[in-house]
Amino acid sequence: MKLPVPLILLGLCMALTTVSRGQTAMDNLISLPLQDSGPKGHKFLLAAVKAVNLDEILVEAGPFTVFAPSDAAFDKYANGNMEELLIYGNKSELKSLVSYYIVAGQFTASQILKSLSRGNGRTSFTTIHGKKLLAHMEGTDIVLTDPMGNTAKITSADLSLDNGVVHEIDRVILPSLR
Questions:
Q1: What is d(CA 106, CA 22) in angstroms, rounded to the nearest whole number?
Q2: I need a labelling partner for 169 at 20 to 30 A (CA). Which of 88, 101, 110, 140 fits?
Q3: For the CA atoms of 86, 58, 166, 80, what is the dihedral angle to 10 degrees?
Q4: DSSP symbol at 28
Q5: Which residues contact 142 (CB under 8 A, 6 or more apart)?
Q6: What is the C-alpha end-to-end distance of the chain, expressed in Å?
């Protein structure tokens, strides 16, 4: 069964834009026009989803949880060369990166906190990429850690979509190299 990774990412981009414009997040995400969602934005994530042909998959199923880096996070990761990453980057690696942000199932911030509480301050998620994504608390922040030790804080939580939930993160996190 194909998992709808791109739909959630597309939904994230569209919903964040929609919410920032004062509309509801429960609109049909595919029919919304791509707009800038403010200073952070999520255009790169949406473009990456389309570049690796995951957009069609995301339309088909759910629910999903997406941990979505902002455009600012991608820009910092790509040293200001986001367009080059899309155009000249290895599509397989890009697909691996994008699918690492998507978890099957809907996990709100409240559910993540409950899981952290039951796990003595730690919990993990298996992404649709098949890799683990760890979570822990730092003060009042939920922090995600990838297999290489990179961390990202959830900066905006619980954007509800038709097929899941989106949490914006402040940095790009990566699946392991192999």
A1: 23
A2: 88
A3: 0
A4: -
A5: 109, 112, 113, 116, 135, 136, 153, 154, 157, 167
A6: 24
pLDDT in tens, 28-78: 232 233 334 444 577 888 888 888 887 777 777 788 898 999 888 988 888
How many angstroms separate the CA atoms of 83 and 86, rounded? 5
Interstrand relation of 102-104 and 64-69 (parallel, antiparallel or unpaired): antiparallel
Output DSSP code: residue 34.
P
Query: CA-CA distances (angstroms) from residue 149 to 2, 68, 90, 113?
Result: 29, 18, 23, 21
State the CATH architecture for 5-169: Roll (2.30)
Q: Is the peptide bond before 63 cis (omega within 30 degrees of 0)?
A: yes
Strands 102-104 and 164-169, by their bridges, are unpaired
Compute φ and ψ for 142, nearest 5 degrees: -85, 125
With vertex at residue 161, the alpha carbon angle to CA 87 and CA 22, rounded to the nearest 5 degrees, is 90
DSSP-assigned beta bridge partners for residue 65:
103, 165
